[in-house]
Hints:
By secondary structure, the chain is mainly β. 0% of the residues lie in helices and 36% in strands. A 3-stranded antiparallel β-sheet has the order 1-2-3, with no helix packed on it. The two termini are 15 Å apart. 0% of the residues are buried. The model has no long low-confidence stretch (mean pLDDT 82).
Amino acid sequence: MINGTTAWVERVAAKPDGHLALIARIGSVPIRFSTRDLLDAEGGVRLGHDLAVTA
């Protein structure tokens, strides 16, 4: 998702490996991803400086 895009999280499920599987929706388009997809090569979260994150 690109900064400024609104997405609605519809489902979150815990996975056996400790990550979460998420289903979000941007308009009518469903997006599926895992928290595993947000990690860099060292296991840190890939968020750039000055990005707004709302939880």
